[in-house]
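Query structure, 327 tokens:
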């Protein structure tokens, strides 16, 4: 991997411009970042909140940082913040994006603001509650269930009294889902020759809610197993990132019609007005011990590219984070 060395940016923002310099402590590895590496300006990017990465510039992503110098009265040296930053040791932030201050008396580890209390946890919260309206006794299926989003979806659904089954890509992850995160059952999709048969085994009465993190063949199999008036939150399609041809495609989409399934894609950024409510809800459940959270931390900026790539081969166990400054 090529490492670019540049000089520490001076805080050059004129007074009142709102610029501030931060020291990056933790960086978040997220699957959407793969999409930002495609050639610029595909039509779909115009609908997204983020654009392609700039060549020869540090990668941009969510991070937790400490303000070291500021020309912005709202942010002072010593403040901890979570929001968009660069994959570099120090970043000069001139246009704060999805940025919030973390209380100095934070009761939750700083890095959790990239997962449990950050964008992935929020994605779980708004996707589950706003799109799926879970009710006690309903059958919920979550794919990529042990990851940053999936682990929170499953545990929130359990708190609502649902029966929750997750799929994941290794025996360790499957074990973690049932023994640590309280899922009712879990299975390793890589060991299932027939995903439809696997879902019929775990959901003999069908699925009310499918929280789809992977797309592809799993979505196709879930469509066959949805109950009438089921809901599908189309959160992500991580299985499709490496697909170069169109493959067999989704064959079972007509189930959406005959079963009157509500299937909706979403971006967490559609729901940012709910962020304070999410923070209260999830923080309270975490501090009460109702929700556990698993993260997978690599040390050093140089580990970041491999950490990101590992999301697409399932190497991460829980939310993948890079600690820029080792303890
Ligand atoms: P994860 O922490 O779950 O990491 C990605 C996981 O995806 C891997 O660990 C791996 O788990 C699984 N995976 C990788 N390749 C495949 C494959 N070919 N088939 C099936 N599973 C695969 O990531 P996140 O929780 O951060 O993200 C989960 C999904 O949510 C992604 O699709 C992401 O794009 C989406 N997302 C959407 C948002 C929105 O606003 N709509 C916001 C945030 C995330 P395993 O070992 O189990 O295969």
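Result returned for the query:
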């Amino acid at each position: 991997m090529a490492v670019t060395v540049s000089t520490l940016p001076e805080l050059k923002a004129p007074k009142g411009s709102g610029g501030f310099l931060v020291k990056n402590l933790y960086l978040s590895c997220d699957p959407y970042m793969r999409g930002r590496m495609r050639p610029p300006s595909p039509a779909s990017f115009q609908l997204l909140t983020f654009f392609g990465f700039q060549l020869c510039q540090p990668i941009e992503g969510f991070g937790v940082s400490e303000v070291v110098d500021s020309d912005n009265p709202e942010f002072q040296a010593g403040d901890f913040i979570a929001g968009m930053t660069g994959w570099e040791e120090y970043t000069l932030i001139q246009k704060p994006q999805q940025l919030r201050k973390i209380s100095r008396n934070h009761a939750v580890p700083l890095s959790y603001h990239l997962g449990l209390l950050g964008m992935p946890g929020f994605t779980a919260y708004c996707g589950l509650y706003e799109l799926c309206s879970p009710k006690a006794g309903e059958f919920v299926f979550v794919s990529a269930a042990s990851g940053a989003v999936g682990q929170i979806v499953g545990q929130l659904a359990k708190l609502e009294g649902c029966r929750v089954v997750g799929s994941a890509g290794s025996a360790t992850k499957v074990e973690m889902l049932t023994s640590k995160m309280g899922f009712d059952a879990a299975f390793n999709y890589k060991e299932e020759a027939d995903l439809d048969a696997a879902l019929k085994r775990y959901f003999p009465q069908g699925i009310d809610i499918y929280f789809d993190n992977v797309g592809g063949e799993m979505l196709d199999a879930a469509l066959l197993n949805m109950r009438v008036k089921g809901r599908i939150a189309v959160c992500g399609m991580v299985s499709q990132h490496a697909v170069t041809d169109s493959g067999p495609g989704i064959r079972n989409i007509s189930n959406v019609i005959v079963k009157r399934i509500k299937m909706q894609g979403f971006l967490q950024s559609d729901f940012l007005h709910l962020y304070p409510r999410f923070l209260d809800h999830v923080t309270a459940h975490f501090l009460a011990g109702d929700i556990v959270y698993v993260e997978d931390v690599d040390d050093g900026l140089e580990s970041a590219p491999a950490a990101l790539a590992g999301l697409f081969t399932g190497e991460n166990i829980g939310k993948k984070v890079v600690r820029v400054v080792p303890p």
